[in-house]
Each structure stands twice: as C-alpha cells, then as structure tokens.
UniProtKB/TrEMBL annotation:
It holds the Pfam family DAO. InterPro entries: FAD-dep_OxRdtase, FAD/NAD-bd_sf. It comes from Streptomyces olivaceus. SUPFAM superfamilies: FAD/NAD(P)-binding domain. PANTHER family: FAD DEPENDENT OXIDOREDUCTASE DOMAIN-CONTAINING PROTEIN, SARCOSINE DEHYDROGENASE-RELATED. Residues 29-393 form the FAD dependent oxidoreductase domain. This is FAD-binding oxidoreductase.
Length: 440
C-alpha cells in the first residue's frame, strides 16, 4: 500500500499523555496495539475493572492519528448490514439483537462522554436515513417493513416530516435514534487521558512489525526498537491486519473522504437542522451525507471510496482530488444557500471493510491470549467503544449476556485482494461509488 490518509481534518488533537517510543525489552500484563477508540476503550475498561493491572498501549503514531480522529463524528445505531439483509442472512431474532446492540452502543458512548466530561461538541439529535432516488426509496421501503416486523422503533418520515427537520427535498426517510454528533478526536484523546490517569502507559511511534507466540506465556510483540512480552494482547489494528499477516480473514482498507465548510449564514444553518443537531445519511451505500457543527459549519462525507492498495502516490492523490471535488459539488447543490460556501478543510481516512459487512471481534487463531478488533465498515464510532468493552470483559473472564452476536468471531470472509482478483474488488467498490453519485 502506498500513501497515507491526506489532508487536515476539521478536528484538532487535544492534550495527550506522554508516549515515549518503546525501547529495549518491556513486559505487561496486557498489551493493546492501536490507540484508537477500540484499543483505548479496551484499555480503559480493563483499568477500571481491574485496578493494578499492568497495561501498555502501543501505537504506530499517537492516539487519534488514524480513523478514530479522522471520522466525521456521526454517532448512530447502525451495526452490520441493513435490517432487511440482516434478516435474510441471520434470521429475525439475530437481526433484532444486532439493531439493539447498535442502540446500546450509542447509549454507552453518550454515558462515556458524560463520565469523562468530554468537551467534544456533543449534540444529541436525530439521524435521518433519507433518499431522493428511486433506488433509495426501494431500500428504505424494505428496511421500514422489516423494522415494523421486528418491533423496532424506526419511524418513517414523509417529505413534510423531513422538511420540518431539514429543508432539503428528500422523498422519504427513516428516523434512527438514539443518535448524536460529536468531535471524534476529542473523545479519543479524552479516553487516552483517562487511561493514563488509571495507570495505563503509552508508547508512540512504535508500530507492530510482527507477532509471535511466546516461549512460556503470552505473545511476543516485535517493534522497531524493542520487544514487548505480554500475558495477553489486543490487536485493535483494523485493516493493518493484512500487513501483519494475521489469520482474521480480509479486512479491506478503504479510503473515504470528507470536507468541512466555513460557518453558514444563520438562515442556512437553521434550514439544515442546526438548532436540533440532525444528521442526514443517504439510504444508498456510500452516498454523500452531512452533519452540522457547533460553530455553524457543515461537514459532508461519502460519495466515493477508493481501495488504496497497489496505487502509486500520484494516482492516489489524483483520486483524492476528484473525490473532494465531487463532494464539494454535491454540497454546493444541496441547498441554495450553500452554492458559494467556502470549503475550509479536506481530508481522507482509512476504514476497514469486510465481505459481509460485519466486524471481526474475537480471539486470533494460532495465537493463545491474543484478540483482534476491526472491520467496523464505516460504523466504528459507537461500535469501536462497545467492542473494546466487550474484549476487556472477555479477557477478565466476565460472561457475555445473551447469545454471541454474529460479529463476535475470529475471522471475516476471504476476498480476492491479491493477483487479478484485486481488480474485481476495486471494480466493485468503484461501481458502488458510481451508483451512489447517480442516486444523488
């Protein structure tokens, strides 16, 4: 893979705990690799439930440097595939549990923000899954019917109901709640500080190079300037699993894009749902979406996704410029008052996708006492925090209530990302983008 996520996100990195590079030989009861929301949530819950446990968090850069600090801050209950597809794949009982788990994950993040007293621009508001296209109407109709059959609270909004919230001519929408928007980098950094306050130590600029089964107990983590021997390890590394040759199936790295604007006029801000803090996500997969900011700016994301593996740096940058230009054009056409609004930030981020839209959260085959978290498929803000708490409980031997969810598993389906097969995967992702842009 060439290149790294580009552009400066709207979010600033807040104060962080000291993160010396790991040098020489070190030990820990638990090593957490990855200082994003999933890894930090795991470390936080471990330290809270088992005071005195020696926990080390290592990261290739620093907390919030990856997807957890480059997201767009939409906190919603989506978990796994759409409701109708979840019923076809897993049956109604599991589909209902999946949706409930997503709702619970949102509430857990809201509770965590309150507990940490995070100044992260948190705004509770509805999340509208809306559409202006025939394809989106069909998708919404299937999901609405399934929601009713499962007894879920996912109301359908008419055009009038949508206009009462946002002044954009959508034809129908589903109302998802609980939901909110927030600053994802602020939450990630606050979680890092809370971990440090509980005695968790951090090592930055320490990318994991290799993982080996330990000679006596626990794994050996090979880093550029040392070794870390741990009793247990959690690899919250998302799509970096492929580079580490972890046997967790295919966690495909996708690069996605976002832009932020200058403050809108008061009239435009209110017309787009400013006072209530609504966010609008299109019903068509990877189609553009938008949310408003406390400073009256607007963030838009989606519309294009790129498989960066194998692309040269100039080619990847050209695709980024094209994606940002498309997103800016969509934003300017969204509402008359946005026609000349100035873009102040453009950035990209990497998410991990799986072949069946489900995350991977489970023990790593062949590596005793090692767990993996990744593949949230673009819905990681709430799910990552929930997954970290789940793995912390598993490491401490605490039982999980109810039946395991479908994504509590050790591997995702394999995708043909090597050889000629990678062109099929890239073509499929490109097709999703064309369909999404046509629908908007």
């Amino acid at each position: 893979m060439t290149g790294q996520p580009a552009g400066m996100p709207y979010w600033d990195t807040a104060e962080l705990p000291p993160q010396p590079q790991l040098q020489g030989v070190a030990t820990a009861d638990v090593a957490v690799v990855g200082a994003g929301l999933a890894g930090l949530s795991c470390a936080y819950h471990l330290a809270e439930r088992a005071p005195g446990l020696d926990i080390a968090v290592v990261d290739a850069a620093r907390p919030a440097a990856g997807a957890s600090g480059r997201g767009t801050g939409l906190l919603g209950p989506r978990a796994g595939p759409a409701l109708d597809r979840a019923v076809r794949r897993f049956g109604p009982r599991t589909a209902r549990r999946m949706h409930r788990a997503g709702e619970r994950a949102v509430r857990d993040v809201l509770d965590l923000c309150a507990r940490l007293d995070v100044p992260c621009g948190l705004r509770a508001g509805d999340q509208l899954m809306a559409t202006r296209s025939p394809a989106g109407l069909v998708a919404l109709a299937h999901q609405a019917r399934t929601g009713r059959e499962l007894g879920l609270d996912v109301p359908v909004l008419s055009p009038a109901g949508i206009r009462a919230r946002v002044s954009v001519p959508y034809r129908a929408a589903l109302l998802h709640r609980p939901a909110a928007t927030l600053d994802p980098a602020a939450l990630t950094c606050a979680l890092a500080r809370a971990c440090a306050d509980k005695g968790v130590r951090f090592h930055g600029r320490s990318p994991l190079l290799a993982l080996r089964p330990g000679d006596l107990v626990g794994p050996e983590l090979v880093l550029p300037h040392g070794r870390l021997y741990a009793g247990q390890a959690v690899l919250a590394v998302n799509s970096a699993a492929r580079a580490l040759e972890l046997p967790v199936g295919t966690i495909l790295p996708l690069e996605v894009y976002a832009v932020a604007t200058e403050p809108l006029s008061p009239g435009a801000y209110e017309a787009l749902g400013g006072r209530a803090g609504h966010a609008v996500v299109d019903a068509v997969s990877i189609a553009p979406y938008f949310r408003l900011l406390p400073d009256r700016g607007l963030i838009a994301g989606g519309g294009t996704a790129v498989v960066p593996a194998g692309l040269s740096a100039p080619r990847l940058q050209a695709l980024r410029e094209r994606a940002w230009a498309r997103l800016e054009g969509w934003l300017h056409a969204l509402h008359p008052d946005l026609a000349r609004v100035r873009i102040t930030h453009r950035w990209s981020g990497r998410i991990g996708m799986t072949g069946d839209d489900l995350p991977v959260v489970g023990p790593v085959h062949g590596f005793p006492d090692v767990w993996f978290i990744g593949g949230c498929c673009g819905h990681g803000l709430a799910l990552s925090v929930a997954h970290g708490a789940h793995v912390a409980a598993a490491l401490l031997g605490e039982p999980e209530p109810g039946d395991p969810l479908p994504w509590h598993r050790s591997r995702a389906p394999r995708l043909p990302v090597d050889g000629p097969g990678r062109f099929l995967v890239r073509g499929y992702v490109d097709t999703l983008g064309r369909v999404a842009r046509h629908a908007c």
